[in-house]
Write a structure and sequence with these properties.
With about 400 residues, the chain is α/β, with parallel strands linked by helices. The protein has a single domain, classed as Aldolase class I (TIM Barrel). Helix content is about 40%, strand content about 10%. It contains 15 helices and twelve strands. It has an eight-stranded parallel beta barrel, surrounded by six helices. The protein has a two-stranded antiparallel ribbon with strand order 1-12. Helix 1 runs antiparallel to helix 15, helix 4 packs parallel to helix 15 and helix 14 packs across helix 15.
Length: about 400
């Protein structure tokens, strides 16, 4: 089998999928599976990617595309292209202070970065390492005072957007994490295998386990003190995720948060209309990357109906399965304002640190430029369903 190009050989991987393969090699299995896996049989995880693949771009020729327009405004923030690095939990276990590296890469490429509640690096650490404003993602917690404190901290460093994740009333079962010992009971043989796996990744052990300390939840040190462990994480999740949350709780968030408010985890048009009626500024069409309820629709399949339901009343973003600039074009053509990517930057930071994230974003930008040129659109704002074909080659905008 041919060796995959590796940055250590002076050869950069070419695509997001290349970085996924490098991440698989460099991370202990438990950590790679946490990034890579989904809930139950992972059918929704696969559908997010597969349903994008069966949508075709409509190639058009002899159009003036000498000047391309990728820049846009999302939730009041100017972006060099319609991409956001979405919130990824535990990212600081994939590379040394990974959230900082990713935020710096996003700033370098002129796009937004969203800090996760369960990041290793704190809000304040990311703020000290960057100059551009970044977003903050929040779970609705039973401890409202703690959630209010997190919102206050995010606001104090100038975060303009709060991304409220609303699809975690309960946590979906992720069977990969059961099999690899990250979730559920673990017998002694499993612990031995796990220790051997960590020991067989000396590069990770040197760069992350040793140099990447402290390994704490930077935003949750008061709630989850001490070093990260699967048991501590599960205990916090079980104690703090609140299944009693309803639409009425948005009033509390609105009273507390002074900036723009986005709901992440909307799949149904009726829920999208409720969000618009509640006065939020945006929604993210998301199934949590296929990590929550399996057998739900892919996000690209759900997107058109959600866009139709809300019209121009709020901004619609989408995540799930976005692996290339071509995928971004497809999502924009179906009505999204921008795309969030999570696994793409997690794999690339694991494989190549900050430069890996920059390289992936440059690759996606190049793919976006080619797609805008060869569909004849030329401008991200000009994309609509007429730029697409279905699996049988019929125009979607006909």
């Amino acid at each position: 089998m041919a060796l995959l190009p590796d940055r250590s050989l002076g050869l950069a991987p070419a695509s997001v999928r290349d970085y996924r393969e490098l991440a698989r090699r460099r991370l202990p299995r438990q950590l790679f599976d946490y990034i890579d896996g989904g809930a139950y049989e992972e059918s929704t995880l696969r559908a997010n990617v597969d349903d994008l693949a069966v949508i075709h771009l409509r190639q058009r020729v002899l159009r003036d595309v000498s000047e391309l327009q990728l820049a846009t405004t999302v939730l009041g923030q100017s972006l060099a292209m319609p991409l956001v690095l979405g919130p990824v939990g535990l990212a600081g276990m994939y590379a040394t202070r990974a959230e900082v590296q990713a935020a710096q890469a996003a700033e370098q490429m002129g796009i937004a970065f969203c800090e996760s509640t369960v990041s290793i690096c704190s809000i304040e650490e990311v703020d000290r390492a960057t100059t551009a404003p970044f977003w903050f993602q929040l779970y609705v917690m039973r401890d409202r005072a703690y959630a209010e404190d997190l919102m206050s901290r995010a606001s104090s460093v100038g975060c303009p957007v709060l991304v409220l994740t609303v699809d975690l009333a309960v946590v979906g079962a992720r069977y990969r994490e059961v099999r690899n010992g990250m979730a559920g009971p673990q017998r002694l043989p499993g612990r031995i295998v796990q220790a051997l796996d960590f020991g067989l990744h000396p590069r990770w052990a040197r760069d992350v386990a040793l140099r990447g300390r402290p390994h704490t939840f930077g935003n949750l040190e008061k709630a989850v003190p001490g070093a990260i462990s699967p048991d501590a994480f599960k205990e916090w999740v079980d104690h703090q995720f609140d299944p009693s949350v309803t639409w009425d709780d948005l009033d509390w968030v609105r009273r507390t948060w002074p900036g723009r408010l986005v709901l992440k985890g909307i799949l149904d048009p009726e829920d999208a209309r409720r969000a618009a009626d509640a006065g939020v500024d945006g929604i993210v069409v998301s199934n949590h990357g296929g990590r929550q309820l399996d057998s739900t629709p892919s996000t690209i399949a759900a997107l058109p109906a959600v866009v139709d339901a809300v019209g121009d009343s709020l901004e619609v973003l989408v995540d799930g399965g976005i692996r290339s600039g071509l995928d971004v074009v497809k999502a924009l053509a179906l009505g999204a304002r921008a795309c969030l990517v999570g696994r793409a930057w997690a794999w690339s930071v694991a494989a190549g640190g900050r430069q890996g994230v920059v390289d992936v974003l440059r690759t996606m930008r190049g793919e976006l430029e080619v797609a805008l040129s060869l569909t004849g659109a030329g401008d991200v704002h000009a994309l609509d369903p007429s730029a697409l074909l279905d699996g049988d080659g019929r125009p979607l905008g006909a």
